[in-house]
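Example for tutorial group B:
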């Protein structure tokens, strides 16, 4: 268990459990069953399970590919291989099928398609917005059953629309067709990445995380420990800024800029927001935008050695050595570490 940052909240006197998972991850379906068993015997506060998106195979094509062909092709199917190092795809399938059968999932088991889960995640998010956690859970169950038990292509909008209706979310298909939920899912994926979610499934409660499809007793023990933890509450703007900084420090400047966009729109005069955006523009090779922002920051505070250093680096990358040298010398004079 490890802290992953503020991603949850307590509502209505109960516990919110965030299930970060991919609906094309077999262990997510198995983990769902095990979580349900743990909650059936849970003697703590009332718990609400909220599904959050994770992508185990972000390179999956928009048009689904037969899974059997993918697994048979040498070098392909890296997501299944990475989930079970040392096992062949067939051996891993057998291991997962046994675990699924033990949790009552079946009778048939196994995905027939390598399908993108992006739109399925949109459907789950929209279900949560329209019907709360109960509807979202019902849609998650229906989507994973369609993928793993019924061998359907869950990247197909017609399939997802039928699945949604069956789960009690009749308007789901129309909402998908409208493009709704795309920006929200993108942001949630970035928030998960920024807070350190790297595995499907990952349970997050009060800023504490439990990775993998653990057995019910392990989940119960985790919930008891997490229930005693009180996460530090941060203003939403501060949290967003920290998440964006975590993405930038983790090598994802474009993701950082995505999270920064609302802050730039609403708090565009804040120096911290502008400096972080300038760093992200620099690291994403948007050098003109970085230069413009840094020149404004330098004009406001000429004694900011870091701004002078970064402006010099931006000019260097544009091949403007003479201009860069002036700023780099000022930075080094103010801070010898920059020499």
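The residue assignment follows.
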């Amino acid at each position: 268990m490890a802290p992953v940052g503020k991603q949850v909240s307590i509502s209505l006197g109960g516990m919110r459990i965030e299930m970060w998972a991919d609906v094309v991850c077999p262990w997510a379906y198995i983990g769902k069953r095990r979580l349900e068993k743990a909650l059936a015997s849970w003697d703590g506060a009332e718990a609400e399970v909220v599904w959050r998106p994770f992508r185990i195979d972000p390179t999956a094509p928009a048009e689904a590919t037969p899974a059997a062909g993918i697994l048979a092709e040498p070098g392909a199917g890296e997501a299944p291989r990475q989930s079970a190092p040392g096992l062949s795809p067939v051996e891993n399938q057998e291991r997962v099928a046994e675990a699924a059968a033990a949790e009552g999932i079946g009778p048939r088991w196994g995905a027939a398609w390598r399908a993108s889960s992006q739109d399925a995640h949109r459907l789950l998010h929209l279900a949560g917005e329209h019907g709360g956690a109960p509807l979202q859970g019902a849609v998650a169950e229906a989507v994973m059953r369609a993928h793993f038990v019924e061998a359907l292509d869950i990247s197909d909008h017609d399939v997802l629309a039928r699945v949604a209706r069956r789960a009690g979310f009749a308007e789901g298909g129309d909402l998908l067709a409208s493009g709704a939920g795309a920006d929200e899912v993108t942001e949630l994926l970035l928030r998960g990445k920024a807070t350190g979610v790297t595995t499907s499934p990952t349970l997050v409660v009060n800023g504490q995380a439990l990775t993998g499809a653990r057995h019910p007793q392990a989940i119960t023990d985790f919930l008891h420990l997490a229930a005693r933890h009180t996460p530090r509450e941060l203003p939403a703007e501060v949290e967003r800024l920290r998440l964006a900084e975590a993405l930038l420090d983790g090598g994802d400047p474009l993701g950082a800029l995505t999270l920064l966009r609302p802050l730039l729109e609403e708090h565009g005069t804040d120096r911290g927001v502008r400096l972080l955006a300038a760093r992200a523009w620099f690291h994403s090779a948007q050098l003109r935008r970085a230069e413009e922002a840094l020149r404004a920051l330098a004009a406001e505070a000429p004694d900011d050695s870091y701004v002078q250093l970064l402006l010099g680096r931006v000019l260097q990358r544009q091949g403007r050595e003479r201009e860069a040298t002036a700023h780099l010398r000022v930075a080094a004079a103010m801070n010898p570490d920059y020499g």
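The chain has two domains: 2-227, 236-338. Compare this with the pattern of hydrophobic and polar residues in the output above.
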